[in-house]
Amino acid sequence: MPTDLADNKADRGAKGAFAVVIPLYNHGPMIEDVVIDALKLDLPVIVVDDGSTDSGPERIKYLDGVHFLQHRDNQGKGAAIMTGFDRAAEIADWAITIDADGQHQPKDAMNLIRAIPENSRPLVVGMRQGMIGREVPWTSRFGRKFSNFWVRMSGGPALADSQSGFRIYPLPESMNLEVKARRFQFEVEILVRATWAEIPIIEVPVSVRYASGPGRISHFRPFVDFLRNTRTFYQLITRRLLVRPFTHRRR
Fold it and tell me: Most buried one in 5, 20, 180, 193, CB count within 10 A?
């Protein structure tokens, strides 16, 4: 066994069992490479197809070691992640989420694992580096700043990259946070609710790569998702101001 792989297994073993969860929706050209790279981590890899209408699912069904789950209809990224959590919780203590668009390098997951302190159950966020290049879409740059501010205003953590989908979630704690959103907003809402539940949140630098031109696949719709984000933050801030003070007082 190569030394680095043995060291990685030792790091993981001391902190519990990990599984990779990849939500998939119409990322046909990219998903095969993402899954193959994730399998190199020597961890269970769970792919949740959220009602794709392209060839993506067919590209990965043949890969050994993939746990393939499928939603008949598109329900949203958050719904796919929760489905992945349900399966991961059967075999692991932690879920590592990786986006299907190829922007993440799965090998960086080991850096996230190593950052977990002993005897701690944090939510770990991969803080993407190099988010200022010309190849980075303006929606990603603006969305990150917008999200960072309102996550903090909602009583969540002060993060540099609250929109990163490359994360490690403690299970089952993350499944019990009563997150309402089931689309992109899931990933910001769970940060706020984790903070309310006093789950530590830490950031770890990770690399990022954006394909240019037709090679990049994003399902983010600026206008629609801006409205959804606004609604999610309004609900969180309202709950923070009107509900949580009374619940804490009762405790």
Answer: 20
How many Å apart are CA 10 and CA 104, to the nearest integer?
A: 24
At residue 227, the pLDDT reads 75
Q: What is the pTM of this model?
A: 0.85
CA 180 to chain centre: 16
Ordered by start, the domain boundaries in the chain are 3-250
The predicted-structure confidence for 82-119, as pLDDT tens digits, reads as follows 999 999 999 999 999 999 999 999 999 999 999 999 99
CA separation for the pair 29, 93 (Å, rounded): 31
Beta strands in 12-133 (DSSP E): 18-24, 45-50, 66-71, 94-97, 123-128
Calculate the CA dihedral of residues 106, 111, 117, 119 and round it to 10 degrees: 40
- The 123-128 sheet, strands edge to edge: 66-71, 45-50, 18-24, 94-97, 167-170, 123-128, 201-206
Confirm if 43 and 20 have CB atoms less than 8 A apart: yes
Positive/negative CA dihedral, 157, 159, 114, 98: positive
DSSP state of 72: S
pLDDT tens string 2-41? 445 445 555 666 799 999 999 999 999 899 999 999 999 9
